[in-house]
Amino acid sequence: MSTIGVSSTNPSTMPADHAALPVWNSENWFYEDWQVGHKIRSLRRTISEGESMAFNALVTDMHPYVADEVFATSDGHFGKRLVAGAFVFSAGLGLVATNCVNAFSYGYDKLRFIKPTFIGDTIYTIRTNLEKHPKYEKLGLCRASYQVFKGEGELVLYCEHIQTVMYRRPEDFAEESQRRSRAGEASPSPDKNRSRLPGDVATFGTGIENKHD
Q1: What is the CATH number of the domain that holds 150?
Q2: What is the pTM of this model?
Q3: What's the CA gap between 120 and 35, in Å, rounded?
Q4: Range of the domain at 71
Q5: Cβ distance 117 to 123 under 8 Å?
Q6: Vertex 143, ends 139 and 145: CA angle to 5°?
Q7: Rg (the chain; Cα; Å)
Q8: Considering its fold, how many domains does the chain have in total?
Q9: Given a cut of 70, is residue 193 above it in pLDDT?
């Protein structure tokens, strides 16, 4: 399914020969191209103290567990500073962002911080396409899971991302979209086989039970 570096968005605000070039780190797929079950894995990245503190400053999150080295190492539960969960979420999703101009974020479900992430940890993300169905006249809904891992495969974050995605041929989905609109159907419901989130439920949240892992 990957089309990175293959298509152009053909912007009108640059020379035509530049606009015609394929765009790196961007995809141009449509609803019809989105394959249920398809997976991608990101590159890895190490979270530094500088970027962690820059994020904290940007969102004015100065909680002692993420911003106070003395507290975190002497009185904190983990013995070292955490990376803010919101930053792990943002960085983890960014690692698999393919910048498709035909897809728009609809929302997130089931966000869980399963294990703590610390300054200096290296993370990577696996995205799995879960399901899709027609929804609107020109847009369908697609749901994918994001699993963020640290180190050699320890799951630290899970969420599901719902996107509205443009049809290549809207006329092919007109009848189904109208039927769903009349029925007032909501966004895709979780599959019964995915009703339980991955990992040990007892460890969700702070990861306190696993502080010595």
Answers
A1: 3.10.129.10
A2: 0.80
A3: 35
A4: 31-186
A5: yes
A6: 155
A7: 20
A8: 1
A9: no
